[in-house]
Amino acid sequence: MDSTPSPSSSSAFDLVSSALGRYIPRGGAAAAVGPVDAQGDRANRRRGSDGPTGGRQDQILGAVNMDRDLRITRCNLEAPVFAGLEAVAGSPFVALLPPGDVPTVTRRLRQVLETGEAHVARIQRLRRGDGSELVVSMSILPAALPQEGLTVSLIAMARRLHLYAAETAIGTSLDIGETAQSLAQSLLAWGDVAAVDLDFTVWTGEGVTGQRQGRIRLRRAALVPDRVWPEGYVTAGDDLPGDASRLLAQAVRRDDAPQTIVIPDREAVERVLGSPRVVRALVPGDRSAAVACVPLVLDSEPPVVLGVAEVWRRADAPFHDSELFDLQELVARTAHHVDLARQHQREHTQVLALQRRLLPRSGGDTVEIASVYQPATPDSAGVGGDWVNSFPLPDGRTALVVGDVVGHGLGAAATMGQLSMEARALLSAGLAPDEVLEHLDETVTLLDDTESGLTAGYSALGSTCCIALYDPVSHQVALSSAGHLPPVLITPDGQAGPLPVRPHPGLGAEFALREPFHVHTFGAPPGSLLALFTDGLVEDRAVSIDEGIARLTDAVSAVHPWDSLQQAARHVVASLAPARQRDDVTLLLARMIGYRKEDTATWRLPARYDAPAHARAQVSALLRAWRTRDDTRDDVLLLVSELVTNAVRFAAGPVTVRLIRAGHGLLCEVGDTGNGRPGLGGGGLLDDGGRGLHVVHRLTNRWGVRWTDTGKVVWAEVTR
Fold this sequence. Notes:
- The structure is a single chain.
- The chain is α+β, with helices and mostly antiparallel strands.
- Helix content is 31%, strand content 24%.
- Strand 1 and strand 2 (72-76) form a beta hairpin.
- Helix 10 (321-357) runs parallel beside helix 11, helix 13 runs antiparallel to helix 14 (565-576) and helix 16 packs antiparallel against helix 17 (691-699).
């Protein structure tokens, strides 16, 4: 009777081990083994794994079995290619991994334990006892019975397969640091230490040219493996000494052409580098004495050197021609990934600078403002189009604006900048929030033209925006939204929740889908806290959008009136948004302060011939109570008289006069039911028509008009 276990009764370890044939003791599972002798000649190991020499050296398959605590119970790593892997029974499997890979691999191992679904063919590195690494294809297989644990099959990667796998891995990130790190990790298969040094202009995302002028500056972008390095050695993030930068640059550009150089031993290294300081900066300890320097060359005319990749070995393991060919091929294949990351870094930096330039600086004296902008991670699609702004309007109100432009990158940034500036200009001109959104809606539609738009092929249709105007006298907020998530309001009496804003399809919607922009007015007494935000703060795949807004409401409700608003805003973002996210996160907190009652006064007068006289009498008494200077009082009385006279003459209905004491100025407002726009015109001071507005223009620092639901308000500011 055949003693071979049937697939239904055999463990995954037995099945994998049976594939090893004569290299495995009969009976399936090999006994647990201790660490393999790591003192053998490493050069022989490399030659043994590079090409078939017959017998056991042909074997590239190994197996490790572990229990549910992820500790090794059995293993078969007897082939020479696995020499140096310290697989000891009872030790944790993750001890074979580079430290940076432990969390990811552990998560995958436990996922297979929980689901029973195999994870097949992951490119992985294993760490040998001497610090070198072996590249393998790793598959995680569940046992037939859950309590039996897991089996990991390992296939040592051949050089050509490693080239393909390395190129694929290097191209997965647009972050220049991660790209350089992936390249260094791939290069480690050819040596003991690998480093990538980039031209500083490449690191910062600036443009590069074939002919560099001035001082050469290199920065270490990546270094592997992760270990304690000697004092004075240049590690990741450090700039190389000037002498070292010049030597490397000159070495790889011999005869004015990028070339790979090899320095075979310690004596030659010290002779080439010259200075002991440069030797300490570049040589990674006494064991590594031979180095291959491969230029990262961008294929252009003339060729552009982006940096240098260095692979260090012990002198007793010289570089063979075939290995140098593989090194050059890998670096050449991946240089364009480094340049793509550079371009992305440049765009990311430019857009981020524009984004931060649009952040609010101040909300004026009547509103306390705090904002947090957290950009998307550099390796995502790029910085998004989130924008937020707050600014005091000339008439004493404060505008709060937040928007989210569709897309990422320069196209979104250009649209974001235009919409932000247009919204500010229109609000400063006195337009209501719904009127401003109507203009932005038209702008987005025009920008969608791929020929005349800001960026060919980019579409901003579906962008969102929310505008809130706070009146510090009435403590009322007028808000309009174009498809944006509703702001959250926390009132002093403890009421909290999102505002009931009517849904809207957003800016640039098709004509059949367009809806009017509504104005939602609500009270915000002093001490109220209003939170405007973009969807990146509350969107989470694990929860609904309503739950995300509820979490934001709870976080904002916990802000104490005495808390620093900026610190509170940072705390809210930190508690809701992860450190790395695929979309921008923006939060604007506004704490309403308003004016004190004793600093404002309002009168409602009938539109009759005696209205100016009544207004002067009321204002004169108030200014005496405020102890205003005589010359200022005379100017304000003349100003009020002219504005009320103009309102009675050209408008019907009652006239409203409001005086506000703000800082070092006085703000005078006269409202009526007319809808015409006052203008200076071309007449002189002696002309009857328009004389009042010329007087207003001469007496005030600034003046303007805003429209209301019932008419208009002419406002003017005077220094007191």
